[in-house]
Amino acid sequence: MVRLNNKNEPVKEATAQFRLVAWATGSAIWDWDLESGEFWSSPGHQRLFGRGEDELVEHFDIEDEDNPWAAHHHLDDRNRVVQAVRDHLEHDTPYDIEYRYRLPSGAYIWIHSVGRAVRNSHGQPIRMVGTNSDITARKQAEVELREREERRTTLADLSQDLIWIFTDGVIVDCNDYAAHALGMESQEELVGTSVLSLLHPDYHEMARLRFAQLLEQGVQTPSREIRLIRADGTVLIAETKACPYSYRGKPSILAIARDITERKNSERALLESEQAVRASEALYRNILDNMVDTFFRTDKEGSIVMASASVDELLGYSSEELIGRNLGDLYAEPDGRNTYIQAFKESGGNIRGYEIAVRHKDGHIVWVSTNSRAWMGVNGEVLGIEGTARDTTQRKQAEMAFQESEERFRGIIENSPAAIFLKDLEGRFQLVNSKFEEWYGVSAAEVIGKTSHDIYPKEFADLYVGQDQKVIAADFTCERERDIPFADDTLHTIIITKFPVRDGTGKVVGVGTINTDVTAQREAQERLRQSQKMEAVGQLTGGIAHDFNNLLAVIMGNLELIGDHVEGNGAVNEIIERGLKASERGATLTQRLLSFSRKQALLPTPIDLNKLILDMLDMLSRSLGETIEIHCEGPPDLWQCRADQSQLENAILNMSINSRDAMPDGGVLMITTVNFVLEDEAEAAQLELEPGRYAMLSVSDTGTGIAEEALSHVFEPFFTTKDVGKGSGLGLSMVYGFAKQSGGAVHIDSEIETAAGTVIKIYLPALSGQANEAASTS
From the DSSP assignment, how many helices (H) and strands (E) are in the chain? Predict the structure, then answer.
């Protein structure tokens, strides 16, 4: 970990020297200033990524999904790389990672990136530097190695034949059986060997002629019998065929040989005397001992009476150790023997390709595939079971690893907060996750194997199919935003991301879709936009109010001076009096504007809301008239709040008069107080409050209500739903500014269709949780 102090000049000088060295070396070096967001890259780095300085020198944030670095990552690598950077910056874990990067041409290269954070004296990261290198060639070599392994697996599955490929007379690939049949330990030992060195000298001239004919004429040669020399010098008689073959772009020959040594020996043994019969029995034993598969035979009770020598390689036991031992003791599962016998009976006494787990002598598990049948005596009676067993552990482990990978993939898909589904090139659904089923009200069984035209109306199906085909044809990821109804008829804002799906070779085999619900984010953005708008309006009105107030002061001062000079002139004094009253009304107007902009001077004191409302009841009754019934309700243990009492009284009066005007034929005005605890972060953000304790006062009426389109504007200065001349539009804006300046908030709800009226709630920070001594009102 590198630590630096906070002095800027040494850091700047060191940074300049570092970048000069990077330029001189030509290496792919980068330097990211975490405080400013500046990202610098060396010329070597720019050449590696195929982008010029103007394209790579950027200011970006690692948390920005559209930053110019992560945006070019392969979709499968992007989150992993970004998380590695976060982990390094937050936990100082090593940043050493490989990922795929898309060049301007659209091609991907493999990058090996190593970086390290530079930290200040407090251990906080202030920049990050590192190097990148192109490892595409190594990755391609790894792919070629996997392809070779796959070819070897395919060759190994071709039964008990010897298969090899040779170029210019040298073996370049083969299967396992060929190596073992020729007495070698592995394929690697056989690869690189001259073909002629494996042939008996009698066949050298004939072989050279055949090889030339194959390469020149390009036709398969007829089957021939030849003799091969094993590593130990013994002869293997084989029946072989060969054909031209292109191996890695080079003219080569593919040869397949079948070991007919046993057959030849058997044929010869059949012509021999009794002595030859005894020799053939020895040969039979030798065949068993040299079989790749293990031969076994049991009696009726399952005790082993014969096992070929290869059982040592298979299970670690010698043939002698197994004689007399019950085969059931070797099964890995306690009930393995019974399961096998049941399958044997169901097969009619001739079972093939049966796989089961057995235990090696050292304790590890070996998977075997067995072909077995009933062992008959001379008179046709069943004496037991005999068969062969082949080691399939590697294949079984590969299958289990693949299954585990599938389960992990399914786990990720099923636990994703987004709806995910995959289609093949013909548009058939191959996979949908549980979130897809939940959102759209369909089960996987209803859509798997079907196309969009089987599920959706034609106009929608045509649209979806067209979008999928564009993604496949252009081989790119696209994203768009739409409002989509869910199964519960609620409308949600969804970001739809479509991307090509590839197989292990990189070939596009389908299209995937991720639907992400961003409804909550969009609502939060709208709340932020509204809050910013109100803040901007507040700043504007505050400035205007101050200037207007200064003008009024000049006007009122001059009117008073004129009054002093024309004292006794009734007509002029009356004009002056009207001007002063108009100026005072203007001053009141500016006071309300200052209240909205939160620039008025407040005198906050501890307030008991219940007592304040009791003291205001007489004034409210006179102000609202006899047609309005006033009801008050509040708990005796209401928390005290801190606010400017006169401004709070003015706010209550304003809200009450608005309610009165909404009930021209009379109605009920309800004033309620409650203790309110706000803990949920999302709810706090929606109310524009910090989590904590609040004393809440609400004023509700049974009036005509406010239209939905007007609700978002009611707190704006000069906005009113009243007729011209019946309201200035500053009452609720004053309430809004007072609540905000007091550290609280105001919220309004109204309903026209249900005639539920309007309710306005003011939240004021509580002083403490102690109960007030004042009694509740009712």
Answer: 26, 29
Within 8 A by CB and 6+ apart from 115, the residues are 30, 85, 88, 95, 128, 129, 130, 131
Residue with structure tokens 């004939």? 206
| DSSP state at residue 327 | G
Query: Strands 419-424, 757-765: parallel, antiparallel or unpaired by DSSP?
Result: unpaired
DSSP output for 257-316: EEE-HHHHHHHHHHTS-HHHHHHHHHHHHHHHHH-SSEEEEEETT-BEEEE-TTHHHHHS
Helix (H, G, I), strand (E, B) or coil at 457: coil
Alpha-carbon dihedral of residues 150, 151, 153, 154, nearest 10 degrees? 120
Copy the structure tokens of residue 163: 């298969």
Task: Choose among 653, 639, 642: nearest CA to 602.
Answer: 642
Residue 369: its H or E element: strand 365-376
DSSP 729: S
Give pLDDT tens digits for 333-364: 888 888 888 888 888 888 888 888 889 989 89
Enter the pTM of the model. Answer: 0.34
> What mean pLDDT is reported for the chain?
79
Burial (CB < 10 A; 0-12, 13-18, 19+), residue 404, is exposed
| Max intra-chain CA distance, the chain | 163
| Count of other CB atoms within 10 angstroms of residue 763 | 24
For residue range 511-529, list pLDDT tens digits in order: 988 888 887 777 666 655 6
Residue 251: burial class (beta carbons within 10 Å; 0-12, 13-18, 19+) = middle
Q: Please report, to the nearest 10 degrees, the dihedral formed by the alpha carbons of residues 63, 65, 67, 69 taken in order.
A: 100
Q: pLDDT tens-digit profile of 614-657? A: 888 888 888 788 888 999 999 999 999 988 887 788 788 878 88
Higher pLDDT, 711 or 763: 763
Q: Which residue do the tokens 């021209």 mark?
A: 664
CB 731 within 8 Å of CB 719: no
What pLDDT score does 116 carry?
Answer: 93
329-337: list long-range contacts, CB under 8 Å, 24+ apart: 330/358, 330/359, 331/356, 331/357, 331/358, 331/359, 332/356, 332/357, 332/358, 332/359, 332/365, 333/357, 337/302
Place of tokens 């392994």: 149
